[in-house]
Write a structure and sequence with these properties.
Blueprint: H1 3-25, H2 28-45, H3 48-64, H4 69-75
Helix pairs in contact: 1-2, 2-3
Protein backbone atom coordinates (compact mmCIF):
# COMPACT_ATOMS: atom_id res chain seq x y z
CA UNK A 1 0.00 0.00 0.00
CA UNK A 2 1.31 3.43 -0.92
CA UNK A 3 2.27 5.80 1.87
CA UNK A 4 -0.37 8.31 0.83
CA UNK A 5 -3.07 5.64 1.13
CA UNK A 6 -1.88 4.73 4.64
CA UNK A 7 -1.99 8.39 5.61
CA UNK A 8 -5.49 8.67 4.22
CA UNK A 9 -6.65 5.66 6.21
CA UNK A 10 -5.12 7.20 9.32
CA UNK A 11 -6.56 10.71 8.90
CA UNK A 12 -9.81 10.48 6.92
CA UNK A 13 -11.92 8.80 9.65
CA UNK A 14 -11.03 11.58 12.10
CA UNK A 15 -11.86 14.22 9.47
CA UNK A 16 -15.26 12.61 8.86
CA UNK A 17 -15.90 12.57 12.61
CA UNK A 18 -14.95 16.27 12.88
CA UNK A 19 -17.22 17.04 9.93
CA UNK A 20 -20.12 15.21 11.58
CA UNK A 21 -19.58 17.19 14.80
CA UNK A 22 -19.40 20.48 12.89
CA UNK A 23 -22.65 19.63 11.10
CA UNK A 24 -24.38 18.67 14.34
CA UNK A 25 -23.18 21.85 16.02
CA UNK A 26 -23.94 24.12 13.07
CA UNK A 27 -20.32 25.30 13.01
CA UNK A 28 -19.98 26.71 9.49
CA UNK A 29 -16.29 27.58 9.74
CA UNK A 30 -15.27 24.13 11.01
CA UNK A 31 -17.56 22.44 8.49
CA UNK A 32 -15.96 24.35 5.61
CA UNK A 33 -12.41 23.85 6.88
CA UNK A 34 -12.82 20.12 7.58
CA UNK A 35 -14.71 19.46 4.34
CA UNK A 36 -11.95 21.23 2.41
CA UNK A 37 -9.27 19.10 4.09
CA UNK A 38 -11.24 15.92 3.43
CA UNK A 39 -11.79 16.97 -0.19
CA UNK A 40 -8.08 17.57 -0.70
CA UNK A 41 -6.91 14.34 0.89
CA UNK A 42 -9.55 12.38 -1.02
CA UNK A 43 -8.57 13.84 -4.40
CA UNK A 44 -4.94 13.09 -3.54
CA UNK A 45 -5.60 9.34 -3.47
CA UNK A 46 -8.19 9.28 -6.26
CA UNK A 47 -11.29 8.97 -4.05
CA UNK A 48 -13.22 11.21 -6.40
CA UNK A 49 -16.74 10.57 -5.10
CA UNK A 50 -15.71 11.32 -1.52
CA UNK A 51 -13.85 14.43 -2.67
CA UNK A 52 -16.83 15.69 -4.64
CA UNK A 53 -19.21 15.18 -1.72
CA UNK A 54 -16.82 16.90 0.67
CA UNK A 55 -16.61 19.75 -1.85
CA UNK A 56 -20.40 20.03 -1.86
CA UNK A 57 -20.38 20.33 1.93
CA UNK A 58 -17.60 22.91 1.78
CA UNK A 59 -19.55 24.98 -0.75
CA UNK A 60 -22.70 24.86 1.36
CA UNK A 61 -20.84 26.15 4.38
CA UNK A 62 -18.84 28.83 2.54
CA UNK A 63 -21.31 30.02 -0.08
CA UNK A 64 -24.77 29.27 1.24
CA UNK A 65 -23.98 29.85 4.89
CA UNK A 66 -25.48 26.50 5.84
CA UNK A 67 -24.27 23.14 7.03
CA UNK A 68 -25.54 20.18 5.03
CA UNK A 69 -27.45 18.82 8.01
CA UNK A 70 -27.44 15.41 9.57
CA UNK A 71 -29.89 14.09 6.96
CA UNK A 72 -27.40 14.84 4.19
CA UNK A 73 -24.62 13.15 6.15
CA UNK A 74 -26.77 10.03 6.54
CA UNK A 75 -27.70 10.06 2.86
CA UNK A 76 -24.04 9.55 2.02
CA UNK A 77 -23.74 6.06 3.46
CA UNK A 78 -19.99 5.68 2.96
CA UNK A 79 -19.30 8.60 5.32
Amino acid sequence: MAAKHRLYLEHAPAAVARLREAVKGGDLEECARTAHALKSMSFNIGARTMAERAGEFENLARTDGATPGETAMQAHGEW
